[in-house]
Please model this.
Amino acid sequence: MSAGTAGKRHTCRTNANHVLLKGDPILIVKVDRDKPHYCTDCARKFIATARQRLDALETELFADN
Model:
């Protein structure tokens, strides 16, 4: 996962109605050989979900400590 700048026009992987214009900040998620691009609105939701899952994992892992 990395932050980047759109080098050309793309559509967001989550919502094709979200257009990423050249120069827009984007989230790039590398999955195997695929590198989907996400707009900042969808990236914010993606990161929030990941945080929640990591918090739950941490709670589960260290529950007995």
